Amino acid sequence: MSVYLDYNATTPIDPRVLEVMVNVYANNPGNADSRTHNYGDDARKIVEKGRSQVAELLQVNTDEVFFTSGATESNNIAIQGLLDYAEETGKKHIITTAIEHKAVLNTAKHMQSIGFDVDIVKPDISGRVSADNIIELVRDDTLLVSVMHVNNETGIIQPVKEIGEFLANKDVLFHIDATQSCGKLVEELRKIQYDMLSFSAHKFRGPQGIGALILRKKNYQLPPVKSVYFGGQQEHGIRPGTTPVALVAGMGTACEFASEEYGLIEENNKAIKKELLRILNESGVSFELNGDQEYCVDSTLNICFNGVSSEALMISTKQYCALSNGSACTSKSYDPSYVLVAMGVPVERIENSVRISWGAGVEMKDVLEPFSEMVDIAKALVM
Ligand code: PMP
């Protein structure tokens, strides 16, 4: 078996999380919205415990946490859910970035197709968008600014703190896609000022198929989002549909472990990155890192091996390392990464770039040898 180093795509579930979920599946058959029996009450207690665990991780109030099926859905609700409010107020300008996940970018493009004015800000070669470039686009009719916290392909941290500070007293909603930072950059996320935040549990060892949309209240009022589909009153009507009790329990547990363990995880991630860089530097292979490493998280490397096709490298190293050359959501396409293109990385360099990402539960001893094998293969593949 190869070592799994594609944590930005998804992470293996924490066995402790799985145990909690299996227990709920086995012993709690109730619907959390049933009010006529104990099964419903018990399910509701589990869901509310999960909500408090999410709230504790992000240091928000429990009535600001809305369960969804994941970040894609949260992003859609955060953007499309503002349609009625935009019609009422005439605010129809949206600012986002060219390196957002497609769940934001394609939703913003849909808004454009129905009459919204959308500005899409590009990063520079550092992989970071400039807060000033975003701030100077804000106008009276700006409805929403949506910027990701950490980019999934490069691991580059975006200036959401600065943007949040600027927007805090403006009549403009600020949404952050924190899918790659939630449960990881725990302290940082707690300090950011935002109105809406999206994430998925499976990026930090929780189950796939669940996430949350955090809606921060201002003057006791939630941001003016509405559901994007019709249904029941679950999650205050913002996300109708039966609440998946075991998934909520799993996500809550993953949040609790993240709250307790993020310091140690971060240290381990940092130590692994240092060793991977040492191996790269000592190998003599010609490589460049995509994105300004000063702003890169400790759990991602986006490496260009000069003269080595990423497709050839990934196929030849399959037995050692599971890597990727971009987001799993777009990996069926062989087009060059739109994130690296937006950064201005030359196409031949993009074609030679692979992403390696790791995280909680990865042990140094399991990574170094397969990584060295991969680097040796890269050396042999140089054209
Ligand atoms: N946003 C970002 C930054 C992501 O990395 C991902 C997952 N690749 C998503 C949104 C979508 O998450 P999900 O597929 O869990 O809905």
Number of H- or I-type helical stretches = 13
Order of helix and strand elements from N to C terminus: EHHEHHEHEHEHEHEEHEEHEHHEH
Main beta sheet: strand number and arrangement?
A: 7 strands, mixed
CATH topology of the largest domain: Aspartate Aminotransferase, domain 2
Q: Can you tell me the number of structural domains?
A: 2
Structure class: alpha/beta
Task: Return the CATH architecture of the largest domain.
Answer: 3-Layer(aba) Sandwich
Per CATH, the superfamily of the largest domain is Type I PLP-dependent aspartate aminotransferase-like (Major domain)
Average predicted confidence as pLDDT: 96
Spatial extent as radius of gyration? 21 Å
Helix content class: 40-55%
Which descriptor suits the 3D outline? globular
How far apart are the termini? 28 Å
* Assembly of the depicted chains: single chain
- CATH class assignment of the largest domain: Alpha Beta
Uncertain segments are: none
Which small compounds were modeled alongside the protein?
A: 4'-deoxy-4'-aminopyridoxal-5'-phosphate
Strand tally is: 12
DSSP strand content: 5-15%
Strand line-up across the major sheet: 2-8-7-6-5-3-4
Present the secondary structure layout.
Layout: E1 3-4, H1 15-27, H2 38-58, E2 65-68, H3 71-80, H4 83-89, E3 93-97, H5 102-113, E4 117-121, H6 131-135, E5 142-148, H7 160-167, E6 173-177, H8 186-191, E7 196-200, E8 211-215, H9 245-283, E9 287-289, E10 300-305, H10 310-316, E11 321-322, H11 338-343, H12 347-351, E12 353-357, H13 364-381
Parallel strand pairs: 1-11, 3-4, 3-5, 5-6, 6-7
Antiparallel strand pairs: 2-8, 7-8, 9-10, 10-12
Helix pairs in contact: 1-9, 2-9, 3-5, 9-13
